[in-house]
Amino acid sequence: MTAVPFSTLMHTLERVLQRVGLSSADAQLCARIHTESTWDGVASHGVGRIARFVDYVRRGWVDPSATLERVHALGALEVHDGHFGIGVRNAMQATERAMALADEHGMGVVAVRDTTHWMRGGSYGWHAVERGYAALMWTNTESCMPAWGSSQQSIGNNPLVLGVPGESPLVLDMAMSQFSYGKLQTLRQQGKQLPVDGGFDAQGELTREPAAIEATRRILPTGYWKGSGLAILLDALAALLAQGRPSHEIDKLQRGSGTGCCQVFMLFDPRHMGGHEFCRHLVEGITAHLASAAPDEGGAPVRWPGKATDEQRRRDRHAPDAVVEVDDAIWSEILALEE
Q1: Domain-by-domain residue ranges, the chain?
Q2: What is the β-pairing status of strands 153-155 and 199-200?
């Protein structure tokens, strides 16, 4: 691993993205989101996605010049076309627009079709809760996971993000697979096994070996048939609300991961629902209750969504000793893109 100062990593990514054709503003935004994701401990969807994103832009699968276009409005609900533009920018703009609608209506929903990979979905959940909004967001994807009872990729892993604001926000960012492909890659590179079964090997047996699952592409749905069912409904609802493509039609594009997907950004303004103080007290009560629960036999503190990320985000990213640990091979790959 290479220890890279936060600001150095962000400025390096910015230069790489400008070199491939992003505007200065878009390069700054994407570099910040990728660097923050890596800082938060999600390198698989931070620095780990840079080379692939650059490749998609060069292939024409992502159009850096495309912008969101509103195609339908119904009160607190809007539908936008992403025109295969930059997924991070589209997602951030959709989040901001949903906030504005929530300011007016108490709830704002923006559904986006024909957008591209949003990278780490939690980025937009954290953006919302840090500004005082509750969030429910999700995306569909190309088929990358077997439906329960199938041996072939037939449904998306359709990540889901939920967040409730507070002094220490509750934020959940999860795919409908037990582990993402990014996590499999990270653990394989580290020479580690998964902590629990994460998919099937070539013999159809459950395994914790990341490489074996990557080879078969048979990742395990979270909760077995329940995660499979939830993924199917998230796909259907995203395509319905965005008037866009479900997973099996995204497959036909053959334009890389997440390209042509539908995303939904549902934001709630607590000021219209009991007020920020009620929301803060609610979250504090939940986290205090969880913190007081007796640990299991492992003895580790009880976990809840957002706890570790909140602690990490409270550190000063711009302090002289603030560094981001980057895999050596990935860092070399990024530096080569700058040449």
Answers
A1: 2-59+318-338, 68-175+226-292+301-305, 178-220
A2: unpaired
Confidence of residue 181 (pLDDT cuts 50, 70, 90): confident
CATH number at 68-175+226-292+301-305: 3.30.1370.60
Predicted local distance difference test score (pLDDT) of residue 337: 95
Confidence of residue 156 (pLDDT cuts 50, 70, 90): very high
Per-residue CA distances from 36 to 23, 29, 153 (Å): 20, 11, 31
Give residue-wise pLDDT tens across range 34-77.
999 999 999 989 999 999 999 999 999 999 999 999 999 999 99
Q: Residue 45 catalytic?
A: yes
**pTM to 2 decimals?**
0.95
31 contacts: CB under 8 Å, gap ≥ 6: 10, 11, 13, 14, 17
Tokens of 98: 């949903």
The single residue of 11, 34, 45, 127 carrying the catalytic annotation is 45
**What is the Cα–Cα distance from 116 to 253, expressed in whole angstroms?**
12
Fold topology of 178-220: Wheat Germ Agglutinin (Isolectin 2); domain 1 (3.30.60)
Q: Given this structure, which CATH class describes domain 2-59+318-338?
A: mainly alpha
